[in-house]
Amino acid sequence: MESAIISTVNRERLERAEKVSRGLAAALDSGELEERQKLTVSEALILGLCGLGVRTYIGIFGHGSTDLGDVLRVYEEAGALTVINVRNEVEASHAATALSWQYRERAAVVTSIGPGALQALAGSLVPQSNGLGVIYIFGDETTEDEGPNMQQIPKREQSLFLKMADVMGRGYSLHTPMALPTALKRANSVTSDPDGAKPFYFLLPMNVQPQEISAFNLRELPVKTGFPGRVPADEGILDRAAEMLMASKRLVIKTGGGAKNVDPDLMTELLERTGALYVHGPQVPGLVPFSHKQNMGVGGSKGSICGNFAMDNADTVLIIGARGVCQWDCSGTAFAGARRIININTQIEDLSQYNNSISIPGDASSVISIICDKIGKIRDIKGTETELWLEEGGEKKREWLDLILRRRREPVLHDPKWGRPVLTQPAAIDLAVDFADSRGAVKVFDAGDVQANGFQLCRDEHPFRTYTDTGSSYMGYAVSSLLASAIAPLRGKKTEYTIAFTGDGSFMMNPQILIDAVNFKLRGMIILFDNRRMAAISSLQRDQYGVDYATDDNVDVDYCAMARSVRGVQAFFAGYDSLSFSRTLEKAYSCNGLSVVHVPVYWGDHELGGLGAYGRWNVGPWCSSVQPLRHQNAL
Fold first, then answer.
1. Which of 192, 220, 248 is the last residue of a domain?
2. What is the pLDDT of residue 157?
3. 168 and 234 in contact (C-beta within 8 Å)?
4. How far apart are CA 307 and CA 279, in angstroms?
C-alpha cells in the first residue's frame, strides 16, 4: 500500500515538473498548472527556486536531505533542472560560485546536516568576499527537539546552524512551511542585489522536508526580477567630484571588484578625459586594456613598480567599487600623498573607508557616465603637470616590463630541494599566461604564491579573462572552479576553455576535481606549480624573521601518477626549461578531457625567483612601521 502511495505522489510530481520545465510563470499563466497544489515543503522549495531561475544543484546527499533529494530526482528526470553530485561540499560551493562568476548562472549547493553543511559554509567565504549570489540548502535538525540529532552541533540549543549562517550572511530556517514564500523573497533580494549580491542559506529541518502543504498557492512564489542600479539624486555631489577630478594634477583611478561590470569603453573614456593613471585590483584585470598607456597594472602590498608608484604619488584618488582590503590599499597607507579622495560604491560602510572623501553612493557605471558628461570634452594636457605625470607613469611601466622580461630571459635557477636547475615560478607562470591568452583561454588562479605572481603578471586586454579569489584566498578554489565549465553547457551556456593555475598546496586541498572532471566530461587544464612548500608564507617568514618555519615538506609526490590513476585524466610532466614546458602545454591543450601539467619550480632568496613586493602590509613585525604611517596619513 505504501509503495502505491509513493508511486502516485511521484507521478503527480513528475507531471508538475514537466510543466514547470517550461517555466513556472508560463505554466501558471497558461492554465496548464493549477494555482493550488498539494505539495511537500521540499517540492515547494524547488518550485520556488525554479521561479527564481535556479536550475542547477550541486552537492552531496545525506540523511539530512533524503526527501529533498527525491524531489530533485523527479524534477531532473522531467528536465526541469540539473543535479551535479560531487565528492566534497567545499568543491560544490566553489563550482556554484564559478557558475555565478564566470557564467552568470545562479546555482544552489545542497548538503546534509552537520559536517557537510559546515564545509559548504566555509566554502561560501568565496561568494561572500566577491559579491556573488549563491543559494545554499542545508539539512538541519528536527523541530520537535526529541533529542540530539546525529551530526548536529552537540549542544542542546535551538537554531545553531541558523546562527552561524546569519553570522556569515543571511539565513532562513524553514521550520514553518507557509513561511516559504517569505524565505524565497529574501533569498531573491540577497542573491540578486545589484548593490552587492551575497550567499543565502536555507536551513531545512529533516522532519519538515516531507510535510505536506494542502492547497498551496503557487502564485505566492516570487519570480526572478532584476533590480536597477542605484543613481545618486544629489547633483551637487557629482558636480564637486567632476571639478575635483579636473583640478587634479596627479590623478589615480583605482578599481576594485565592484567595478567588474563597468563598460570597458566607459572606463577608458573616463581615463582619457581626466588624464589619470589607472591602477586595478587583482579582480579586474582587462577592464582597461593593459596595453593602454595610462594602465599601470596592479597595485597593493604585492603590487607592481608602476602601480604602486602611481598610488604613492597621486594628489587625488578616484576609488571605484572597492572595500579597502588590507593588501589592496597597503593597509591604509597606499595613498600617502593624496589629500583628495572620491569614493564610488554601493555599500555605505565601504564609502566611509577614507576620511574627508567625497562619497558617492551608486552604481559605478551610472555614476561614471554622469561624471564623464559633466567633464565634457577631452582636455588638452600638453605642457601641464599632468603630461609629466603620464610620462613618469610610462617610465615606471617600462621598468616593470623590463623586470618581467629579465625573468623570462633567465628562467632557470638551481633549487636545493629539487637538487637541480628548475624553472622559476615567475618565468613559468608568465609563459603559461601567454599560452592561455594566445588560445583565448580563461585563467583562474589559486591562492598563495601562484595567485600573487599571477595577478602581477596578467596583462589582459579584455575583462573576464582572469579570475582570482583575492577576497578570501581560498586554497583549492581554482581547481574546483573548473567544474563550472563542465556544468555550463548542461544549462545551455557556451563553455569556455579554462586553465587553473595552482600550487602543490592548493591542489591537495581539493584533488577530487580529478574524479568529477571525468564524471562530467570536463575539458580543461590544471597547471600545478610545485615548489614543495607554502611558498607565499615561507617567503613572508624569510622577509620578516630571516628564516622559514613549518611551511615545507620533504615528500616527493608524483602528481602525474596521481592524476593518471583516475582513468580519463591525462597528465604530463613539464620538464625543467621553457622549451619543454611550452611543448607540454601544447600537448595538454590538445587533450579532449582534463589534462594536468606538473611543473617543478624554484623557491629561494634569489632575486630572479620572484617578482618582489612594492607596498606595505600591517602584518607581523612590519606593523610597527605601517601603523604609524597610517595614523600620520589620517586617511
1. 220
2. 86
3. no
4. 6
Domain co-membership, 240 together with 367: yes
Mean pLDDT throughout 253-259? 94
Domain membership flag for residue 106: yes
Cα 472–Cα 473–Cα 474 angle in degrees, nearest 5: 90
CA distances for 79 relative to 12, 76, 519, 547, angstroms: 15, 5, 19, 58
Residue 265 host element (H or E): helix 264-274
**Cα angle 463, 506, 308; round to 5:** 50
> Does one domain contain both 419 and 371?
no
Residue 527 pLDDT exceeds 70: yes
Residues with Cβ within 8 Å of 264's Cβ and at least 6 positions away in sequence, in order, are: 286, 287, 288, 289, 462, 463
Compute the distance between CA of residue 635 and CA of residue 633 in angstroms, rounded to an integer: 5
Given a cut of 90, whether residue 244 has pLDDT beyond it is: yes
Rounded percentage of the chain residues whose pLDDT exceeds 70: 97
- 384 with 419, same domain: the answer is no
Q: Is residue 293 situated within a structural domain?
A: yes
Domain assignment present for 613:
no
C-alpha 603/C-alpha 415 separation (Å) is: 7
Range of the domain at 306: 235-395
State the Cα–Cα distance between residues 484 and 490, nearest whole angstrom: 10
Cross-strand partners of 316: 251, 340
Q: Are 588 and 432 a contacting pair, CB within 8 Å?
A: no
295: closest CA among 283, 309, 306? 306
19 and 116 housed in the same domain: yes
Determine the Cα–Cα distance for residues 183 and 227; give it in Å rounded to an integer.
18
Residue 569 backbone dihedrals phi, psi, to 5 degrees: -90, 135
What is the domain count for the chain?
Answer: 3
Task: Cell numbers for 239, please give them.
Answer: 558636480
Assigned C-alpha cell, 76: 531532473
